[in-house]
Design goal:
Elements: E1 2-10, E2 18-25, E3 34-36, H1 38-42, H2 58-72, H3 74-89, E4 97-102
Antiparallel strand pairs: 1-2, 1-4, 2-3
Helix pairs in contact: 2-3
């Protein structure tokens, strides 16, 4: 399945980075990004209240879980999110980006 992941950091003057905004687009939402939130995925497993990427820590696992729940539903998403984190979230670059990925799990 092809997905497009878009990350935007949110900065306020004089403050450190606030929670990044994360959007995904996949065939079910073709031509339209859907914003995803940590709070929804935290109902099922709570690693972190903030998303992060580029590693396999708590925020990266929460991002992987949130994406997998959107793509696969809760039951299957819970089964595959840690592998998804290792394969797709850990290698992501720092900063803002838009990345097209072919997801195979």
């Amino acid at each position: 399945m092809k997905i497009i992941l878009k990350v935007q950091s949110v900065f306020q003057r004089g403050e450190s980075c606030k929670e990044p905004r994360v959007f995904i687009m996949w065939p079910a939402h073709a031509q339209k990004f859907k914003e995803i939130y940590a709070t929804k995925s935290m109902r099922y497993r709570s690693h972190s209240h903030l998303f992060s990427w580029g590693h396999t820590g708590h925020g990266a696992k929460q991002l992987a879980l949130a994406i997998c729940i959107e793509l696969y539903g809760v039951a299957q998403g819970m089964e595959v999110y840690e592998a998804f984190c290792l394969k797709y979230i850990a290698p992501l670059p720092d900063g803002d980006f838009t990345k097209e990925m072919i997801v195979e799990l």
